């Protein structure tokens, strides 16, 4: 009988790039997921619906530059995407393609630095800022096959976490984040319009917004069927913007109709998903969706994720427009800052954090 290629390495190290250098064909036991959590990498049976090709594609240029009819049709598509999927890909997004290439180059440059250099920016416990494994609370907790590096762009920043190498890192991240912020502000405007609200309702409500960036590096794995690149979760943000690095294998999967569905990268497109904040504000009309990442046997994968959220001071609850006798209130009022802290103190476990914290 074949045995699983797992082991407990003689050194206590959770950095997957280093583990792969030590023994590329061995998976430490701590990364081997329980049987029920392991990804099915044999593909989705064709008889099942939906298909990955069904994921909505939103043409940003039609929202911002189209004629009245084109804009109206694209807003209707956006409404369907948010209500039925919670995820969509966006094309013609107005972010310069050279900037997308630049942030990918900078990200890869950081992850290729020696471990001792990256460890100068080690993750700050209880936050998502820094380099390492986030949301680890016990010695027996299963770990994701991923190295992460996170930074806050606005509000609570830790300047000592911004690397000096590779050259130009800070400038590239700042420029990229400014463009992503503009995109998020525009998308929230059109999401509001798709709900029949005034376009500036979220901008006025959110106050001093929070923005963060997280860079993910997923090394190849000799047994991708045993591990997860990133455990299932929903995002606490209002919306999230994901850039899948060019040439990366398929890795992002969303839970649609109880089926894990791969998100097939479209060249030069960005992926946007609804966060918990919008689900609460719309009383569940637009829902955040569980998603995860799987890894590849031979190729590495890289992604850059930007989170856009309201002020920590904001008290969140369903908006009156979405509560009536046919749609009773589904969430209690809560402080967004408290929720963010709660998320940072919880393991990635699907939508349990939202369900336990805010749902009535």
Structure in words:
The protein has a single domain (97-357), classed as Jelly Rolls (Sandwich). It is built from ten helices and 16 strands. The chain has helices at residues 16-22, 60-64, 68-84, 97-111, 115-118, 169-194, 201-206, 276-281, 336-344, 352-357, and strands at residues 6-7, 27-28, 57-59, 87-91, 130-132, 147-152, 210-218, 230-233, 239-244, 252-256, 259-262, 270-274, 291-293, 301-309, 315-316, 334-335. Strands 3-4-12-9-14-7-6-5 form an eight-stranded mixed beta sheet. A four-stranded antiparallel beta sheet has the order 8-13-10-11, with no helix packed on it. β10 (252-256) and β11 (259-262) form a beta hairpin. The N and C termini lie far apart (49 Å).
> Could you spell the SSE succession in H and E letters?
EHEEHHEHHEEHHEEEEEEHEEEEHH
- Main sheet characteristics: 8 strands, mixed
CATH class descriptor: Mainly Beta
Strand content: 15-25%
Count of the domains: 1
Number of helices: 10
CATH superfamily: B-lactam Antibiotic, Isopenicillin N Synthase, Chain
Ends: how far apart? Answer: 49 Å
Average pLDDT reading: 89
Instruction: Report the CATH architecture.
Output: Sandwich
Q: Tally of extended strands?
A: 16
- Strands of the largest sheet, in order across it? 3-4-12-9-14-7-6-5
What low-confidence regions span 5 or more consecutive residues with pLDDT below 50?
1-12, 44-49
Helix content: 25-40%
CA-atom Rg in angstroms = 20 Å
């Amino acid at each position: 009988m074949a045995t699983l290629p797992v082991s407990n390495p003689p050194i206590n190290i959770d950095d997957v790039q280093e583990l792969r250098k030590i023994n590329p064909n061995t998976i430490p036991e701590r990364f081997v997921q329980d049987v029920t959590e392991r990804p099915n990498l044999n593909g989705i049976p064709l008889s099942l619906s939906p298909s990955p090709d069904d994921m909505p594609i939103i043409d940003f240029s039609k929202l911002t530059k189209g004629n009245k009819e084109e804009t109206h049709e694209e807003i209707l598509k956006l409404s369907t995407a948010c209500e039925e999927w919670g995820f969509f890909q966006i094309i013609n997004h107005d972010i310069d393609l050279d900037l997308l290439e630049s942030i990918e180059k900078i990200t890869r440059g950081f992850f290729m630095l020696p471990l001792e250099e990256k460890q100068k920016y080690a993750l700050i416990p209880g936050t998502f800022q820094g380099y390492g494994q986030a949301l680890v609370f016990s010695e027996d907790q299963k770990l994701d096959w991923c190295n992460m590096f996170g930074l806050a762009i606005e509000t609570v920043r830790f300047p000592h976490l911004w690397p000096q190498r590779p050259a130009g890192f800070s400038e590239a991240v700042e420029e990229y984040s400014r463009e992503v912020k503009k995109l998020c502000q525009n998308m929230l405007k059109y999401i509001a319009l798709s709900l029949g609200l005034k376009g500036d309702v979220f901008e006025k409500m959110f106050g001093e917004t929070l923005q963060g960036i997280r860079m993910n590096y997923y090394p190849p794995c000799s047994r991708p069927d045993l591990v997860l690149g990133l455990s299932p979760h929903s995002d606490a943000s209002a919306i999230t913007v994901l850039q899948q690095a060019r040439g990366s294998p398929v890795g992002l999967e969303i839970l649609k109709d109880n089926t894990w569905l791969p998100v097939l990268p479209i060249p030069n497109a960005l992926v946007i998903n609804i966060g918990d904040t919008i689900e609460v504000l719309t009383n569940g009309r637009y829902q955040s969706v569980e998603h995860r990442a799987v890894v590849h046997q031979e190729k590495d994968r890289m992604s850059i994720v930007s989170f856009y959220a309201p002020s920590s001071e904001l008290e969140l609850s369903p908006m009156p427009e979405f509560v009536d006798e046919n749609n009773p209130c589904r969430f209690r009022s809560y402080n967004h800052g408290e929720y963010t802290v709660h998320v940072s103190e919880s393991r990635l476990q699907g939508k349990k954090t939202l369900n336990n914290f805010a749902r009535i």
